[in-house]
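Posting this for the archive.
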Amino acid sequence: MRKRVALIGLCIITALFITANIYPQTTPKPAPSGTAGDNTPISKNTFIQIAQRVTPAVVNVWNLGEGGIFGGQKKQSGGTGFIIDAKKGTLLTNHHVVAGAKALAITLNDKRIFKAKLIGSDPIYDVAVVEIVNPPADLKQVTLGNSDKVLPGEWVIAIGQPLFMDYTVTHGIVCSLGRETRLGKAQMSTIEYTGSYIMIDAVINPGNSGGPLFNANGEVIGINTIKLYAGYGYSIPINRALETKDKIIKDGRVIRAYTGLLGSDIDDYLAMEFNTTVDDMVKDLGLKGPKGIFIRGATEGSPAAAESVGFVESDVLIEFDGKKVENLRDFRAIIEKLKPDQEVKLKYIRKGEEKSVTVKLAELGGGKKPDPKNQPAGEDEEE
């Protein structure tokens, strides 16, 4: 009897073992830390810890007028910057923070003040590279992140000196990516180049310009640059800023080729402007589909405005330098790799007929090397 009971028990255990392996439990595994589905709350001390760690590498940038930097000279305007190379004293800020400066000064968060010099700046992407003259040995630098990995909804922290107050810390989230805007100057309103920004709801104000945008790991993912309505702001992706920085250090400015074309993608916004539909516009323009750039004209004095080129509104650009162009993104990716004075062929459609023309590219103005006369010399001073 006992043997029979033991045998039955063994059979039950064996059956349960086999069943468990054939039909495993389906309880979902927890999401890995830091991925979608991770609902672990951020520690209330996270922002405090990040701010304490990174603030020593955040500086105030003073844009000074005529006269000495110290000696009673008034601080006329300024913004924020952050040190990316402590050994060389190199920092990044916005072009509009340092534009027109006769002299520059840097204030560290411990109130020490140093002379600085402009290495170069770029008004298109609004990036400037500044270097502290005779930097102290105890400078701190930020940790740089990767803006290509930024996602909407992630936490961000902005640190700077808005309205010329002491350092402030604000936080929010990434609202969207790839937001575009153009400068108002005619030569810089062409289709070739436009800023692409990280949109945030962390509060920024005048004085925050040029300051760092950090992620929840304390890494810089952007440079704060524009305050928008309703509390939103724009930040330059750090990857774009670093590419611009490398070009500035190499040539003193960013050298860009341009045609001067003005135009738009063929989409619902364009169709709405002409009170029609995309399908009808495609038929009227003699296209096979909504691909190409609808040409509106060209800026005065630009290569594309020359009489020998002869573009008119409603021409549609379909190929540039031997490469197909389906939209503005394609066009910009091509021209960024070209140089001024280079001759390129443009193919376009005019009322259903394919045509081509050769254009000699020119250099887009605005990016200038700093004037040596305006650079400070001598030992650094403190105040």
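The radius of gyration is 28 Å. Residues 12-41, 183-189, 372-383 have pLDDT under 50 and may be disordered.
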